[in-house]
Design goal:
Blueprint: H1 11-30, H2 40-47, H3 51-58, H4 61-73, H5 84-99, H6 102-112, H7 115-138, H8 146-164, H9 168-171, H10 173-182
Length: 191
């Protein structure tokens, strides 16, 4: 999965990213998700790279954790279920389940602390929303504007996860999707 919306690095850079991300995931798993048990030197040792490589590429441990977590949180591809509603549910419901967990909330906070990560993550999410729209259009379905999908479904859910600590069940993602697709916001431009 991608860390940012920029093209994937190739060659050695891709191998380093994969090794570092895998090291973080395995260390977190071994420590029951306890992020305080991690350090840049520990991750570097596990990944087989120098600590300076991690500092140069990610800056510090919180940014690295945010990059790894954001890389895991969004599915790499949008699933074609045969309908826009199905595609949105298949894409967004697992996302909400991940982010509404304690670890997911921490990931959101880490991402908010780093403007570059949030911009890249937003671009990646927007790309997925555009893919949802593209699939719908290819099937002959009308699709709300990407901005409306984000404003009606995605943004309020993330806000409520962060500030009200709501669970996936409380967030009623299917209802939000239905509201958007059945009535749409006043600003919705079907295209």
């Amino acid at each position: 999965m991608m860390t940012t919306a920029t093209p994937r690095p190739g060659g050695r850079s891709a191998r380093v990213q994969q090794a570092v991300h895998q090291a973080v995931r395995s260390l977190l798993a071994e420590n029951d998700g306890d992020r305080t048990a991690l350090s840049v030197p520990l991750v570097a040792d596990r990944a087989g790279v120098n600590s300076s490589t991690i500092y140069r590429r990610w800056g510090d441990l919180p940014r690295l954790l945010a990059a790894v977590a954001s890389n895991q949180m969004l599915p790499e591809q949008v699933e074609d279920t045969g309908s826009l509603r199905g595609d949105m549910e298949a894409w967004f419901i697992p996302y909400v389940e991940e982010f509404s967990s304690d670890l997911g909330r921490q990931v959101l906070r880490d991402m908010l602390a780093d403007g570059a990560v949030t911009r890249d993550y937003f671009a990646l999410m927007n790309g997925h929303v555009e893919e949802l729209r593209r699939l719908a259009k290819a099937r002959g379905e009308a699709a709300p504007a990407a901005r409306d999908i984000i404003d009606v479904v995605v943004a309020p859910v993330i806000y409520r996860i962060l500030f009200n600590h709501e669970s996936a069940t409380e967030l009623n993602v299917q209802d939000r999707i239905s509201l958007l697709l059945n009535t749409g916001p006043a600003s919705s431009r079907q295209s």
